[in-house]
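WARN retry 2 of 3 for item q-0093 after timeout on previous attempt; input resubmitted unchanged.
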Amino acid sequence: MLSPAGPSCPRYLPDLEFPAYRHLPGQTPHPRTHPQGHRFALPGPDLPLTPENWPTHRAYLAGVDLFNGAFWWEAHEAWEGPWRVSPSDSRHQLQGLIQLAAALIKWHQGNQRGMEKLAHSSRALLEPLAAVHAHHLGLNLPDLLERSDAFFAAPPAPENTTPDLLPLLRLDFGS
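OK item q-0093 returned
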């Protein structure tokens, strides 16, 4: 099983406990609908994500930690609530991150076509935003796009992947 991000990638919500397992659709019990699901509780209500509140937005930070821990389905779930209620630029970034997480799930499951389609969708959402806001909600978007492109251009086999090969999310609280 793929190991989570190493010590070089910080945790942004150190009090967040990771779920008991990483949900992979069709391979593990659905977290909420299956009797053996991990029922992971997401932090905080569905508050809008803005350039002003992102450093303390628990659902956003939880999603970043989950993403970096290879809990991609759970990261998507953390971001979905804020995605529904956030302003346009924040919504586009969240949707791009959700698509990136979904692309990594497809990669992990060996679904090349699904991975490529979702990676393209992620780029289509994040690239225009990066042209306007190089740093948005703590992320260096051009750098994330570059690392994602490099990963998806020649994705390694999941069993041969270390966290440093993945397009991890690193937040800069100075931007």
